[in-house]
Task: inverse folding
């Protein structure tokens, strides 16, 4: 009989997709895997869609949120820990795998109280608040960046890279288009979209049209609704009116396939996005989210920029003109694009999901030995 694992982490795709990558491997090996998240997070949809059962707790954020939200989260925390503890007992969890997000805090505390081995994935160069606080108690910390090592006990940490779905490693290399050939730009603010990127993309359309640039724009805008109007519908109508080649969609379910079409990625610098870009060997213009906890997105982007593997523009500098200028410069410099492709692959860790699954099984074996 296989072991029983609980995977926690959520809110955004950057937390959920790595957990799914590891969960699929464990399931293929005959183990039982369930998820523990929040009803508001993306895990509530993605885990069941992938065939995994999911339990829920109620919890919000603590870091970089307002005083009201902090108070609400602290009030919810004891009940959330107790609920998570009950779920671990109900599921008979042999080990817990955490990929971060709001829900990770109470689940990690519950696993420690229940004496269930805890393996955490810390994907960022700067660990999140929960991992910094509880890191010394984990069975193993699996890191995305070497810079995060100092926050965890020596001997219980290794740099594995971020678990990434196989499809990204299978994206075939693409020749940079010659001058005048169609140049595909994939703009994505992540599973929830990004206002700054939506605005900059919209402002750039007329500039590309006037320049007669042979760009094709694929834009994942998110599904935000404002004043009763879905933003992606408004953007899609406005884009169609420009006559430019491309499309605006709220969500791209097969992102790896979209990467295969693209010549340049424009997006945030969350750990999941950076790992997928590295796995697929994609040139990228990174625009770090300025409000990310501990400014970890900027640190992620800087790691690639310092290696010549990407370029970066700060959020407050990104607008339509900036986007247009970067795209046009890179479009006309295929050698730069090829060099970025070569250098970013150095950050790819193709065995990260497999290693995470191995560590989880090892944790169970050691914990159950008499």
Result:
């Amino acid at each position: 009989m296989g072991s029983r694992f609980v995977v926690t982490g959520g809110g955004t795709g950057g937390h959920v997709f790595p957990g799914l990558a590891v969960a699929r491997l464990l399931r293929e090996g005959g183990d039982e895997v369930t998820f523990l998240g929040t009803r508001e997070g993306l895990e509530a949809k993605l885990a069941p869609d992938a065939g995994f059962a999911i339990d829920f707790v109620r919890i919000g954020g603590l870091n970089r949120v307002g005083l009201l939200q902090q108070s609400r989260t602290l009030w919810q925390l004891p009940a959330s820990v107790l609920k998570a503890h009950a779920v671990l007992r109900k599921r008979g969890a042999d080990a817990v795998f955490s990929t971060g997000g709001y829900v990770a805090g109470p689940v990690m505390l519950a696993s420690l109280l229940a004496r269930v081995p805890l393996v955490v994935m810390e994907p960022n160069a700067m660990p999140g608040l929960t991992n910094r606080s509880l890191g010394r108690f984990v069975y193993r910390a699996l890191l995305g960046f070497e810079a995060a090592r100092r926050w965890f006990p020596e001997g219980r940490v290794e740099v594995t890279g971020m678990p990434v779905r196989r499809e990204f490693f299978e994206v075939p290399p693409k020749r940079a288009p010659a001058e005048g050939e169609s140049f595909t730009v994939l703009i994505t603010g992540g599973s929830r979209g990004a206002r700054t990127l939506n605005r900059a993309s919209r402002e750039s359309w007329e500039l590309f049209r006037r320049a007669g640039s042979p760009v094709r724009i694929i834009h994942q805008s998110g599904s935000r609704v404002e004043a009763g109007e879905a933003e992606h519908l408004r953007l899609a109508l406005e884009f169609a009116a420009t006559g430019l080649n491309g499309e605006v969609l709220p969500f791209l379910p097969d992102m790896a396939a979209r990467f295969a079409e693209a010549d340049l990625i424009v997006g945030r610098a969350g750990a999941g996005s950076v790992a997928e870009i590295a796995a697929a060997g994609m040139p990228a213009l990174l625009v770090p989210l300025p409000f990310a906890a501990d400014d970890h997105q900027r640190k992620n982007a800087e790691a690639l920029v310092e290696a010549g593997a990407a370029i970066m523009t700060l959020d407050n500098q990104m607008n339509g003109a900036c986007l247009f200028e970067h795209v046009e410069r890179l479009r006309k410099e295929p050698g730069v694009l090829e060099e970025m492709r070569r250098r970013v692959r150095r950050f790819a860790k193709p065995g990260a999901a497999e290693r995470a699954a191995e560590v989880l099984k090892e944790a169970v074996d050691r914990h159950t030995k008499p």
